[in-house]
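Standup notes
- DV: blocked on the single-chain target, sequence here:
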Amino acid sequence: MSGRSKGMVVWTVLAVACGGGGSGQDQGPGDTLLGDQSGPDVPGMDAQPQAVETAKSSLERQKDPAVPPGDAEALAEGNAAFAFHLYHRLADEKGDIFIAPLSVSIALAQVSAGAKGQTAQEIANALHFTLSQDRLHPAFNALDLALESRGSEPAEEGDPFQLSIVNALWGQKGYPFESSYLDLLALNYGAGFNLVDYASDPEGARLAINDWVAGQTNDRIKDLLGPGTVDTLTRLVLTNAIYFKAGWMNKFKAELTDQQPFHRLDGSTVPVDLMHMETMTDLPHAKTDDCEAVALPYVGEKVAMVIVLPAVGKFEAVEAGLDGAGFLGILDSLAMEEGTVTLPKFGMETKASLAEALAGLGMNIPFTTDADFTGISSTGELYISDVIHQTFLAVDEEGTEAAGATAVIFEGTSFPPPEPFEMVVDRPFVFAIVDLPTRAVLFLGRMSDPSGS
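- DV (later): unblocked, structure below
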């Protein structure tokens, strides 16, 4: 029996979509959260999304984290650096790409909260996390809350601005997860913890996760986890989903859209629909001999699409030299100027495993059985099997719709059963017969000599 005293942290297990009741249990800091270990009622049926139980912390999300300006700036610089390092890794392999780097950063920041030693250091280095853990997570919380507020700000004109960032964890029922880790995520990321059963129904768990992601992204991200991405040894999947939809502050005139040639890198051209602004307008703009940049604001003017257009013949050089610091420098150089922009209508959907790219950025140990994620589970067996990232983008005359989702999949080498106990009733004892749902004591007794002599 654990000698640790119970704290005031309470985790409540809620049955969702399965009609069952929940149970509450006290967990002290450092204790583990154990869910129900029962499997599906009818094995062998066609795969359906599992019913999901939600473990809800009594700790509410911190809505006003105290984050010094220096920490916020350090986070912005680190996130930008990672964004462009990941961009270069993937662009070198795949050509045109569309990623949601903040989704990856938020997901792996949560992973880092449960990592220790060299595992934690490699994640921090690859993601450019320069803040200590006690400052990193409040900084992400403040950033997320600031972004979330964009959708609540009244717009003087145009369609309502939509921006949502949500997190969820999907853990194996009965597996020992550290409640201190889950509390940190609840406080700083608003991440709910869902209990599923990979061990007996990995396909049902996969479908349940995919349904959640689709629901959070207006059905733009479907089937994030493909068949076989989770299996009976999966212990935890951590998901982040971002959904964005906004109208241009200065809309393009649909009647002016026409087909014109787009000049590709190899010198060939292809006809595309080019959108045109009807009138001159003031826009944040900058131009050098190497490139030109403009920010096209969305309704509310706090979020914009920033376009960096290299000069003719200089795309490769400009792209190769573009990093986080350089991009932030471009943002700082923008100044209001009058002009117009012609932009192609475009969109794309991408899906990729980021495991190889992250390993290339120095995140190696987390993908091996040498990983130390004992901050997530004291079993010491967890390691990352894959990081899957999927995006959607549509840009037209009215505005932009974009979605991104990231899943970090943790595997285990085995499924350790709860530690057995041995209770020897060989001395006097008190006993009772109790109705458990109501906790009514029906009978109560004392036994000091079972022999009856």
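- Follow-up: Residues 381 and 412 are 5 Å apart (CA to CA).
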